[in-house]
Amino acid sequence: MITVNFPITADVIQRIEAAGLSVAFEHQLDGNGIADAGAWVCSDSAAVQAVLDAYTLADAKTARMAEVDALTCVQFDTAGKKKSAFEAARWPVLLSQTMAYQQTQSLASCPSVVGEAAIRRIPVQDLMVKIMANAALLDGVGQEIAGISGRHRDAIATLQSFEAVQDYDIATEWPF
């Protein structure tokens, strides 16, 4: 029999399995088909208990923050899917050329912008306005995602119990 003083999360089960052990929560049914409170059943109680005893609040926080990081990646990937990979790869070039033009006032400093504007048959300045607006929009989304991610990680760092870490809702406030 093992003593469990905190929620058994996926991270805890992974650590147990990484040690070559197994653990599962099982209920027993009485004669009327009613389940009891249940108990943890494991391959080697002493070895599983050693893994549980070594698991710290800091470990739980690190695992929960890794979940926040995974959600952050999903958010950035979702934001990035709104443009093709090729178009997204061009944006730093277009933005840097637009900024160079603002400093030099020379169209020679922004050949990609000039070329695209010519093909679109719009004034170069109009395209530059669009480039700067898109850059601001993308930067705003990036700030929002990074800020929410940081706020969740900061909040998790202050939690004082395993239960609080497990119960902390990391799914709130994301833009996508």
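[next item in queue]
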Amino acid sequence: MTGLAEMRQQILDNFYFHAILETDPYIIISKDSAGCYQAWVIDKSANQVDSLSGEVAATSEDALQKLFDKSCEQVQEALDEASLQARSISDAST
């Protein structure tokens, strides 16, 4: 990822990938009274916080990175369940 805007978009794309119903997700970042940041994905269509919520870190960038990592892991789990695999790097060189 080259920037925060691209990371935010990829988190949303990953969210859309595993959403069952139509969704209206937003990414928000909060700062609690202890000074910790939390990155949230909130689905406004259901008026509830999605399961990707609440990644906590010392900086907003780190919280967003944790949320990004978690969203990528959930996509990989879905791909594994569907038995879809990308070619490995060694396969791509042949």
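[queue empty]
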